[in-house]
Description:
rod-shaped
Amino acid sequence: EQGLQLLELGGSVEQDYIRIARCFEATRQRCCRLEQDGRRAREQLARVEAERAALEVKLKHARNQVEVEMKKRHRAEAELEKQERKLQLVLELLMREPWGNEALSKEQCSVLSALAGRRLGAALVPVKRSSAVDESCQSLLSHSDISFDRTEDDVVRS
């Protein structure tokens, strides 16, 4: 009778061991899947970080290019203003000097009068930005909307 009980216990213990072994195997397989998922996530993170770094370099170059172009534009506008002022002075001189009207034909005088009228009127109004630049998309991207705030660049990434 005791032997039979031992056999029954042995059979029950053996099944318990098999169940435990199956649980360990399922846990091991789950750990392997989680390890693979972690490896894939690390690889994806590395790709995204590389892409982010490349985009930051592009952003830096774009900011520098915008800054260079803005400086060029300001210089060109200053030169334009200077040349317009010179033209205005020449026109005023030609229109006011008695010899200027005599030396020029009537057609030339009328053209100069028209130019002088526009230039003298424009001289009273501050010079606006060059109209040569197409600013039809101004609401979407305007040079005045460009921010050079670099606080985002200084954020320490953890």
